[in-house]
Amino acid sequence: MVRVAFLLDKLRLTAHRLDRFRRRWVIAAAAAAVILASLLVYTVAHGKTEEAGIVGLPGGGRLIIPPGAMAADAKVTARVSAAQPDGQHTGMRLLGQAVELISDPPDAIHGVLTLELPVDVSVVPAGVDPAVWFGVSTYDEATRSWVPQTATYDETRHMIVALIRHFSWWNPFSWDFGGFGDRLAQRFGEALGKRAPAPKCHGNRPEWVGSLDGVSAGDNAAVRACAQSDGDALDIELVNNRPYGQVVRFGDAVTRAGREDIPSTVGTVLAALVDATMDDDEIYLPPLTRASVTIRHMDPKAAAVYHIGPSVLTVGADLAFYLLEPLDIIADIAGAVRKAPDLFRRCVVPDGGQRLTNRSTGTLWEPAKAVFTCISAVLRESKPSDVPQKKLDRLAAAGELLKRAGPVLNGIQLANDVLWHIGDLVADWFANAVPARGNGFEVHARETTQDTPPPPQPEQKKSWTRCFNPFNWGDCFF
């Protein structure tokens, strides 16, 4: 009986060891498969230079080596790595992970080789030729940038094909046509005074920051922004990149918020009108104005949304000042505001502080008339010395015209003309993908908390008396 139990216990121990060995072998085989999938080595056969060599690349691509194009016995290494060069790629969207080609010796290439890289045609917009949409680029160490290369498209196998004469990093890409348009709009807009230069940040963001959604200094963004550290706090530099005003709304996490000098006369008057209505957790950004927001260290896993966008009052003010431009009175009003910053504090627009949620002509037109009427009334009553009486009379006449024009056709036409003046507002409205933050951003803190590890347990010493039991002999002797 004892011998039978001993044999059974030994068989169980053997099975356990075999199972443990099998699991280790499976893990090792899987790891080896991953390594082989990302690192392939090909040796050019000596004495077979009349035959073309084909190197299968990670991801499904191919490198075709024609006869005599490489030295005999040269080694070609192809690898895919997440640590690919992070160079400039202006006008391009790099696709997937790059393939690095290495030859040993480095001067082994004597001719032209063919590189084929697969692309996903499902991402090509309808009606666009993939041959135009896709391309291939190589990394230039000297300029630290990805450089487009001449390539063709194989529509049968969905491959980008390039003839190459050197080894380096290679990556397929799609042309960023939207980026071209944004850069063009930004450059022309800056020249016309309708766009603002990007903000400047130095250094990295704090370690506790996990992700920043919507923070971009990219061309033609409605609000250009960048992030940097301010001690342990997060500093967000903002630029209103539009000719219309916007309001930054923030919460308890913000410890400091400020606006830089307003660059225009119109902005100065707009700020005098809108600032009086701002709550403690809001900042008004006149057109093309810069600001900064400092956010304290947030708790792990915490998130905060900072909405930026126009309000009923800001749109009404923008439209009203468009109507004031032909009267040649804005500079005079600015002079009066500098002497009396609270000049327009009593101007009230119904629901002026509300976010703009209705883009109908009437909704935008009514606050514009309310702002225009209020400005006219304040100036008529206060009669500041900076504004000539002749211009005040002209302003009053224009206000009466607006009152009569409201319900008739020419009033509607005038409203539409005004909307064209702030076409950016309408375009941004339709393009906005995240209404909860508008033109703003989100901050997500890292998940830095870690479960407290249990205290180490004291090692239990096995008593030698256990070995008197035959059922424990497998642990005692094997």
Secondary-structure blueprint:
Elements: H1 2-38, E1 39-43, E2 53-56, E3 62-65, E4 75-80, E5 92-94, E6 99-104, E7 113-118, H2 130-133, E8 134-140, E9 145-149, E10 152-154, E11 159-164, E12 169-175, H3 177-192, E13 209-213, E14 223-230, E15 233-240, E16 246-249, E17 254-259, H4 265-274, E18 282-285, E19 290-295, E20 303-309, H5 312-324, H6 330-339, H7 361-382, H8 389-405, H9 409-421, H10 423-431, E21 441-445, H11 473-477
Antiparallel strand pairs: 1-4, 2-3, 3-7, 4-6, 5-12, 6-12, 7-11, 8-9, 8-12, 10-11, 13-21, 14-15, 15-19, 16-18, 16-20, 17-19, 20-21
Helix pairs in contact: 4-5, 4-6, 5-7, 7-8, 7-9
How do you describe this structure in short?
This protein is α+β, with helices and mostly antiparallel strands and 478 residues long.
